[in-house]
Backbone:
């Protein structure tokens, strides 16, 4: 027991207590501080010693057993296993650490790519698609035209001519608005952040789709909001559950991506869009509509925005230019109902004073020259080709029991493994095959062991899509064969109240 007295567990770390304990005991075993066939302390005794729940000890012991560091004798307890295959175990642990690090990074919206990896994880367009030459011309023109003005602070609401042009541009999308309603932002992520900063107080409740965009969850969490998850069905948010949650928990906001949702790629039907607007109006709740990808609409003419149908001024619309133009511009805009204008403006001012003057002026010129139409048409062509190859490849190669619902546009595909199989486990299985994807658990506020995974075509060329899906499908088939990776099926949504 003395050896175990030295173990310290830190509740302030992100890492679970049971994995900290697992690592500490594993170190005792590897360093031979405890020897083969030594008995581990009884669960309750160790729990008392370390001042943790019994369950923490149970989980740590089970993980040690799964990794063959210990063995159990029914009725007698848990014992240290002989260490013949220590190297193999340490290799397993190293791989596990790498995978957990990958997933932690994905949680924060990043991925570290290894050489030659086919990257279905990233949702950012391949850089050679960026309209660099056209942008270079407008940048130079703005510098010649505006000189030092281009480097001053811009008004916090945004460069007036840009807001003016956006009002015109929105008419094409059936949205009628005015310059007073337009708030320029440094990317959609900032839009979510300043809305949360302006409208949420600690302890307020926000409804999110389940699964949903990780960056939005991180923002709501950072504002101390509670998130309620409502399942995303193939034709949009589950309205029945939504209404029940609204009545029971009185949320302040609903955060939604009605077209080509991230991560599922599903879109709300027209019926669901209308019903959601009507419901939000009846209950007096504001909807944040995150429109990050409506432009990539390949097979529907239903991808209209909620904002274009918002007769009650209940929707704050967020438009990102990242996915269709260039993420590094850090540019987007909000359409804010007049009643919220001031609060949003103050939140923007206290975030970064204003979005870059040079970028706003250049983008304004880019829009006014009409180059954006050509670029959107080009992106549509490129992505439709990738989209079609992806659909064909999934239909051809995915093994039986693996599902996906064909989206009508966008870049994301939501793949369901057979019940009971974990996409995180699949990730560790496939890492050596050089395919990256995002395990579905990342898209829930509390990481769950989901059997779904997100594949994105944003950063993969058509030939690689075919090769990658073939390889991935083979790996999934192998994975199904390994019955010992079966995991408990978890519910797909869970309110955290
Ligand atoms: C749904 C969604 N909203 C917002 C963002 C952030 O976009 P931006 O680069 O404009 O901040 C992303 C980025 O991936 C996204 O997927």
Residues:
């Amino acid at each position: 027991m003395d050896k175990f007295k030295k173990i310290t567990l830190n509740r302030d770390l992100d890492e679970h207590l049971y994995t900290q304990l697992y690592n500490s005991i594993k170190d005792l075993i590897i360093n031979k501080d405890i020897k083969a066939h030594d008995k581990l302390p009884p669960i309750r005794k160790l729990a008392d010693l370390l001042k943790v729940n019994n369950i923490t000890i149970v989980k740590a012991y089970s993980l040690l057993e799964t990794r063959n560091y210990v063995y159990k004798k029914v009725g007698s307890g848990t014992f240290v296993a002989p260490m013949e295959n220590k190297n193999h175990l340490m290799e397993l642990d190293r791989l596990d650490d790498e995978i957990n690090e990958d997933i932690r990074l994905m949680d924060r919206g990043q991925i570290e790519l290894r050489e030659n990896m086919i990257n279905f994880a990233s949702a950012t367009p391949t850089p050679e698609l960026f309209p660099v030459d056209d942008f270079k011309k407008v940048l130079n023109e703005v510098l010649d035209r505006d000189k030092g003005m281009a480097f001053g602070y811009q008004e916090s609401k945004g460069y007036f001519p840009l807001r003016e042009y956006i009002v015109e541009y929105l008419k094409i999308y059936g949205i009628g608005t005015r310059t007073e309603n337009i708030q320029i932002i440094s990317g959609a992520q900032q839009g979510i952040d300043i809305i949360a900063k302006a409208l949420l107080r600690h302890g307020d409740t926000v409804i999110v789709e389940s699964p949903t965009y990780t960056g939005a969850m991180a923002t709501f969490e950072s504002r101390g909001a509670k998130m309620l998850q409502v399942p995303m069905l193939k034709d949009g948010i589950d309205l029945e559950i939504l209404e029940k949650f609204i009545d029971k928990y009185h949320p302040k906001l609903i955060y939604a991506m009605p077209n080509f949702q991230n991560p599922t790629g599903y879109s709300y039907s027209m019926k669901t869009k209308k019903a959601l607007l009507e419901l939000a109006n009846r209950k007096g709740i504001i909807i944040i509509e995150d429109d990050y990808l409506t432009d990539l609409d390949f097979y529907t003419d239903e991808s209209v925005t909620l904002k274009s149908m918002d007769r009650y001024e209940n929707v704050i619309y967020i438009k990102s230019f990242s996915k269709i133009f260039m993420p590094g511009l850090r540019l987007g805009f909000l359409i804010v109902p007049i009643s919220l204008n001031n609060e949003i403006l103050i939140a923007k001012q206290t975030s970064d004073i204003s979005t870059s003057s040079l970028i706003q002026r250049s983008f304004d010129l880019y829009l006014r020259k009409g180059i954006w139409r050509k670029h959107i048409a080009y992106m549509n062509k490129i992505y439709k080709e990738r989209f079609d190859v992806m659909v064909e490849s999934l239909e051809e190669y995915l093994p039986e029991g693996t599902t996906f619902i064909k989206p009508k546009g966008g870049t994301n595909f939501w793949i369901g493994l057979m019940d009971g199989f974990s996409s995180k486990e699949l990730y560790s299985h496939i890492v050596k095959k050089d395919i990256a994807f995002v395990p579905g658990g990342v898209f829930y506020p509390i990481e769950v062991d989901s059997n779904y995974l997100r594949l994105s075509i944003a950063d993969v060329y058509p030939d690689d899509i075919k090769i990658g899906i073939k390889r991935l499908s083979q790996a999934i088939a192998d994975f199904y064969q390994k019955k010992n990776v079966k995991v408990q099926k978890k519910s797909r949504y869970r309110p955290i109240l």
In short: Residues 485-497 have pLDDT under 50 and may be disordered. The pocket of pyridoxal-5'-phosphate is lined by residues 123, 187-189, 213, 215, 257, 262, 290, 292, 320, 322, 327, 332 (CB under 6 Å). The CA atoms of residues 395 and 402 lie 10 Å apart.
